[in-house]
Amino acid sequence: MQPETTRKEIRVRIERILKKVLPNESGAARLQQVGLFTLIYMLQGDDEPVTARRLAMMTGQAEGNVGNQLKKLFDVQVIERTQILNKQGRGLAWHLSIADNPKSRRLAKAIEKSGAKKKR
Q1: Which of 36, 108, 110, 116 has the fewest Cβ atoms surrounding its Cβ within 10 A?
Q2: DSSP 3-state assignment of 84?
Q3: For the whole model, what pTM was predicted?
Q4: Per CATH, is 3-115 categorized as 3.30.470.20?
């Protein structure tokens, strides 16, 4: 695939997500929310649980910053959390997952559609 074609394809996919998902949010909030939602969506099938710590390690962000961004997703009810034992088995952590409601299904559908090849 040619670099220009790849760039155009990525642009189409990302624009579709940003325009159709969480339309009442600011651009910065949508970018943060779509980014975190996409990571959780991508990781939730892994054997390792999706936690704020794991997201922080993946993104290079402080856990507090990730926590603040996750709060936005909790507030709009597209993710949920379940209490689990931490890696060491001595304390508690929160496993993050995609909520099963119309808003989160719309967001997941936008992500899935963005991955579908555009028919020409």
Answers
A1: 116
A2: strand
A3: 0.68
A4: no
